[in-house]
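Page 47, continued from p. 46.
Same chain as before, 327 aa.
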Amino acid sequence: MKLQTCDIGPNASGRVRPWLSVVMPTWRGERWIGAALQSIAEEQLEGIEVLLLDSSDTPATIDVARRYMDRLDLHIYVCPDLPTWQAKTNHAVSIASADHVCWLHQDDLWLPGRAAAVRTWIAKAPGATLHLAPSVYIDENGCKLGIWRCPLPAGRHLDGNLVRRRLVIQNFISAPAPVFRKQAWLDCGGMDEQLWYTGDWDVWLKLAASGPVIYHDQVTSAFRIHADSQTATGSRDLADFTRQMQIVLDRHLPQMSKDKATERAARVSVAINTALAAVGTGHTRALWRILAETARLGPVGLCRYLRDSRIVERLMPRVQARLKGAF
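Result:
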């Protein structure tokens, strides 16, 4: 596979090795990419490289990105042979110059202070495999809709088993928030490119199994909800949507010492997610299945499911976005 380099930022020659690589897989992102790059540029902190890999069928996204060449250590690649964001992400991580990497998808944002916060996280715990944090939900116009948190204690090294037992219930990690060690990503095999919906969930579980995780209770990124997002469009194929989640459970649950309570909650969570997706496509009868599945958990199991799934935090912003006409 050969990447065609479009441009390399002016400070690439003779630069100091970056301390952070930001991976940006893009496709027809001209509506959002300017705001995403602007949010990085406004941090005005040196040592951050941005790797933008684009597989669009028009030059519109790259035309917008080029406007930031003089403000960022920005490397732009045209990669038609890497059509999926998972494939672009894996390749970008492999060529990243920094020891620590994060994503920023074309429709998401950094918030003011993100760069300084991440630098502090890394300085205090450079050996942590995964740094996690909450994000703010925003709508297509950038208006705040709520906070997306992780059900984890903040400010200390966490046992990977604790993180995995909670994370396998539901992917509670917002894509623009984590920072991970490049070598840990490579060692665990990176993202499964066959998982179009759950590839990030799977790789977070793999990374959590490979070393310490730290949750920082600082909101430094924004996750955008809009009608054209992958979660909104992909979940319309309900059979494949369900299969994607089942693959992750079948891959990771056997490693959890036959924890029946965790397995029960995880499988109920998949059923509820599928029912919610069905409701989103107009099958309102699926609401009865949601009630039936939650009843199966019992009081203790239901409390655990509500804690680990963050279902209320995840649903309310989407309801607000629908009421505003974003879907």
